[in-house]
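Q: Could you fold this chain for me?
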Amino acid sequence: MVPGRAPVPDNPLGLSWHDSALIPMLNPSNIMEYFSEKSNPFFDRTCNNEIVKMQRLNPEQLTNMTGLEYILLHVQEPILYVIRKQERHSPTQATPLADYYIIAGVVYQAPDLGSVVNSRLLSTVHHLQSAIEEASSCSRYHPSKGYTWDFKNGKSLPAKKEVPVREEPSSLFQRQRVDMLLAELTPVEVKQEIKTEKKDMKPPPEKKPRTN
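A: Sure. Below is the predicted structure, expressed as structure tokens.
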């Protein structure tokens, strides 16, 4: 085992590695050097990358070599980097062995297809087993009637309690912005004073009867 390097467990999918001192300085030009740190358990120091580094060769020489190597496969700055471990056979042919993704400076090994299928199958079997046990608790047997189902007296799942949603108070900036928007959207009412002249209202003249 290399000194200063953590041993790789049988299942490296649950393992992660990072160097807090170097995380703020990560970029595409130094991410491979970060991945090749001695304390990184995912890096195999017998690879061609280490030979090129020790002999101070041009990294482009990797394509002319055969054997184990690491390449930078994908970059999504500033948070995601994907590194591939592969076996090179010729300058144009290489066999992928494993992929590693670096998120915010933390290195993980990407699961292979077999591990993903195995995990999904175990999850499915677990839920099926729980459903069978739940159904079995509701079965009843009588010598004359045989097997029957009694869902009323069987095991029932506990009701989920509704957790009230806590409303966070608004900030001063939010209140000022809302007040400004309301002021812009509210129409300005122009009050016009209607002047009315008071006229002396006189009663109509009385009609006198005509005399012949």
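A (continued): Helices lie at 31-35, 48-54, 113-136, 172-185.
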